[in-house]
Amino acid sequence: MRGRSGKRPLGQYRLPTGSSIARAMACAGSVVFPHVRHAPGPAARRGTVIHKFIEEARAIGRVKALDNIKDDGIRNLCNAIDLNLFPPYLESEATYELDVNLQTARAIHIDKPRDYPYNAHCFYGTADLVGFSEDGGTVIVIDIKTGRRLADHARDNWQLRFLAVAAAAAHGAKDAKVALAYVNEAGDVEFEWAEFTSLDLADYMEELSWLDSTLLKVSEAVASGYAIDLAIGSHCDWCPALLNCPAHMDTMKSMDADLAATRGELDQLSPESLGKLYDRLSAYETILKEVRSSFRTMANSGPIEIGDSKQLRFVSNNHTIINSKKQDEFVQWLVANGPHSCLRVTLDPMATETLDKARELGFVVDAKLPTLRKVNKKC
Ligand code: SF4
After folding, report:
1. 279 and 326 share a domain?
2. Per the domain annotation, does 233 fall within a domain?
3. Does 29 contact ligand 1 (Cβ within 6 A)?
4. pLDDT value of residue 141
């Protein structure tokens, strides 16, 4: 039976979206343990702006799309992107629902990016660009990447596999041509292409169906109190279940002893022990990064009371001076977040004249966003 659209029923999981399928294939825990959502970090926000530029530039033209970008650096990068590399017949931001139980798919409309409905046995995802060969027999899917280069190639990429299966099933195509389009810091775009035959697409559909039934079994095992196999690896970075992951929480138990071992005894350890210790230290860092990110997400909605007349708040110090393009953005941020910011001396939230003056005076240009700090309540 289908669930209610847009809601995650209590105690249930939802199937991974296209970009999380690879992690789910590696570790079911990433889906079935409760998720902790974080506000996107700087790299994700930057990626969103670049994606939006490519989408808007193809619809309203390069000049208008560039005007909508406030950050100088990202605008320069976008300005360097050769839009002719993305043929006009490709549609931007096409969202698909793939029902692996019925083995059918359809294009759907969503009101907000990544705001997918919830339906049993259905995977969801959005293709940055999708189109078809002239005879309609081949679906073409391009996924734009703006961060670090992925370890898996286009042929092995589960996001592309899912989108190819879904788009082909939705539109009656037989096979697929897919690409990862990497946009580097200079705005150069490098494509990595792969082709999927109809047999490949049928295999991927079967594997997604296997994932659906496996996740159901694993979820039932967890609900009954059984321990499940977890696979720690590079896919744990940004895993939304990390703070509820038993494997990582077990790892934390050895932190005290490991930190003690780093005080003067390192050269006594065997190479194997050093390697294991290094891996555990990396795991601690990953967990602590997640905890810090949770604090930042919480502070996004206001100061966090921490007792002793202190709060955690986002603070801009008086060394942060912004250039003319960043000024609007910064002032907008202040208007939206002013009550939670703590500005001192030279930067009053609305003091645009002060900012102009500071610029004239040649202060250092720095676009850093405010940092989370422990401050006195009165500050
Ligand atoms: S943090 Fe890693 S091991 Fe734990 S649930 Fe997520 S992917 Fe699995």
Report:
1. no
2. no
3. yes
4. 97
Cβ of residue 313 lying under 6 Å from some atom of ligand 1: no
Report how far ligand 1's centroid is from the alpha carbon of 237 (Å): 9
Contact (CB, 8 A) for 163 and 200:
no
- Atom number in ligand 1 closest to CA 245: 4
Asked if residue 283 and residue 348 are part of one domain, the reply reads no
Residue 285 domain boundaries: 239-292
Residue 185 CA to residue 183 CA, distance in Å, equals 7
In this structure, is residue 5 part of a structural domain?
A: no
For the stretch 271-303, pLDDT in tens is: 898 888 888 888 888 888 888 888 877 777 778
Distance, in Å, from the CA atom of 82 to the CA atom of 80, rounded to the nearest integer, reads 6
- Pair (88, 188) in one structural domain: yes
* CB of 27 shorter than 6 A to ligand 1: yes
Q: Say if residue 142 is in the same domain as residue 93.
A: yes
The more confident residue out of 30 and 40 is: 30
Q: At what angle do helices 198-223 and 158-171 cross, to 10 degrees?
A: 110
For residue 346, CA distances in Å to 325, 366, 374, 375 come to: 19, 15, 21, 18
For residues 327 and 350, what is the distance between their CA atoms, to the nearest angstrom?
10
**pTM (2 decimals)?**
0.75
For 71, residues 6+ apart whose C-beta sits below 8 A from its C-beta are 46, 49, 325, 326, 329, 367
Amino acid found at 186: A
Taking the C-alpha atoms of residue 342 and residue 303, their distance in angstroms, rounded to an integer, is 11
